[in-house]
Specification:
Blueprint: E1 4-8, H1 14-23, E2 28-32, H2 46-59, E3 65-67, H3 79-96, E4 103-106, H4 116-130, E5 138-142, H5 155-163, E6 171-176, H6 177-182, H7 191-201, E7 207-212, E8 214-215, E9 226-227, H8 236-244, E10 253-255, H9 261-274
Parallel strand pairs: 1-2, 1-10, 2-3, 3-4, 4-5, 5-6, 6-7, 7-10
Antiparallel strand pairs: 8-9
Helix pairs in contact: 1-2, 3-4, 4-5
Length: 276
Amino acid sequence: MFTIGCHLSASKGYLAMAKQAIELGGNTFQFFTRNPRGGAAKDIDPADVAAFHDFAARHGIQTILAHAPYTLNACAAEERVQEFCLATMRDDLQRMEYTPGQMYNFHPGSHVKQGIEVGIEKIADTLNQILWPEMTTTVLLEVMAGKGSEVGSKFEEIRAIIDRTTLSDKLGVCLDTCHVYDGGYDIVQDLDGVLEEFDRIIGLSRLRAVHLNDSKNPFCSHKDRHEKIGQGYIGAEAFQRIVNHPALRDLPFYLETPNELDGYAEEIAMLKAFRK
């Protein structure tokens, strides 16, 4: 089954997002757990969650992806920033248990001149404080583009975080096409080689989701500016290979392109047409 969706607003609840995903031609969706710039989360309505589960079962929605706020920094230099990240992620993961067996994605963080090794240790320490054995959610480390002092633009850095996390069985990886291309992994000319390197360093069994985004900037630019599918430097032909690749085709794909809802519907239709 081709699992494809886009990023939707969570303001009206789970059921509304599920209905919108189906209307757009998708069968999954991504959403922010709270305001993407941080802050308190909206209370979860158990009736809405129950209605969502019923609707999802009837319409084939199996996998959804929650996204942590962009402001979180698990390896911040300032203690108060790191504590805010810890409290927010802990709360998010408790809330995720209303929809068991789903995924929670976060940007590993920026070491802010502390050095990459310090950043890796702090991220792993955060994970070691918020993961628990009985949780059903898989936490995804997103591969980054490498702008500024971002941690996680190299596969080795993601691997190092996983290795330092006690409950590493609760961790997976989200591969963002714009990020990896901007970060120096040539998925346009050598998709097979990139995935082989990922498998060697991290393991393809860890790869649980793909963000589908074209890039406004050329290869290895370390910029992280998303573009609509086929209108950037990655290009439509590369996305045809990506959605059909044996190592990727059974994963859920999530669009984060600069679109309104009608644009997402067009991209979902286009990507469906790419499938062989």
